[in-house]
Design goal:
This protein is an alpha+beta fold. Helices cover about 40% and strands about 20% of the residues.
Length: about 375
Amino acid sequence: DIAELSNDIWKVGEEDSIYIGLEHIEEGKLRLNGFGYSKDVASNKIRFTQNQFLFGKLRPYFRKVVKPNFSGICSTDIWAINPKDGTDLSFLFYLFANKEFVDIAYKGSSGTRMPRADWNFMKSTKWLIPKDINEQKAIAAVLSSLDDKIDLLQRQNKTMEALAETLFRQWFIEPARAGKPHAGGEAQDDWEQISLFDAIELVGGGTPKTSISEYWNGNINWLSGGDISANHKGIIVDTEKTITALGLKNSSTKILPKFSTVISARGTVGKYCILSKPMAFSQSNYGIRPKFSNCYFFTYLLIAYSVDELQSAAYGSVFDTITTNTFKGHLVLLPKPKIIEAFEDEIKPIFEKMLNNQIQIRTLEKLRDTLLPKLMSGEVRVADPRA
């Protein structure tokens, strides 16, 4: 009684160009991480508008829900949902983003290998919601204000990331290509060509035995490939899993220091991020510490610049893999350490600001996710804005 599906099918040759698939919706984040274009997809897609929101209906995904502010087309693994009369669009969006709602949505799922939420089942569920649409709007406004702040901080971090990459190119890439003096003042002919392997310190990871409960749910963050992918080109604050000191001791995993870089080395290779605090990590990834004295951010940007080459050189019969030989095969041209250290001093405030923003983002996300079910259930009420 409060929502309906859009069945507006897009056809090849129509004007809509933006395409959203499940891979473009961040799990649990309620935002997009990118989009594609209609020329790259088949014709059996659903058209959506900015007056709808999208809900990923495959069970392996958790809370893939997003409300775009534009029109386009989406995968058939996604529902495009319209609010019915008397229901506010933003309120309905947050209802579908509620973990309780998601859990119930998949109880009536069909399929065994890839269970899908079933709309006929969903139509039979009943939910207690405010009858007054103004109260619905007030609830949505509280949650939207948190999302707006999260979005602002995310955009700030993307801008600072781009600035850091630009400075890296100005100091190290453009002068090397042009054979001109370095941004730090050193002539290019004083630089040395070395392998990427020799410019960084690679560290291997590991996984404590999952069958031993004493190794898990401790106070040491443990990174998997999924954690890195979810925080690609960013600063990671939390991980899905944690391990104990006993798990650390009895496995090959190691703790990397704060601001180290990690990169996925198997499967979806080339995803990378920077650590907000010391963390351990799995054997499917490489930890990277700086070879040059405490130059963590230079090292991160060097990996960011080199990642396309690393991905191109990855190999494997089943999964693409980056090995130590991949790093050894990629050459970089670098100045003397004093120039790298001067760059580190210049770039450090940018990354420290990014870290502060990322910590705020995580705090706001936790607040939103705590408030959301309480507001939706009526446990916490919002005052009528007209009062």
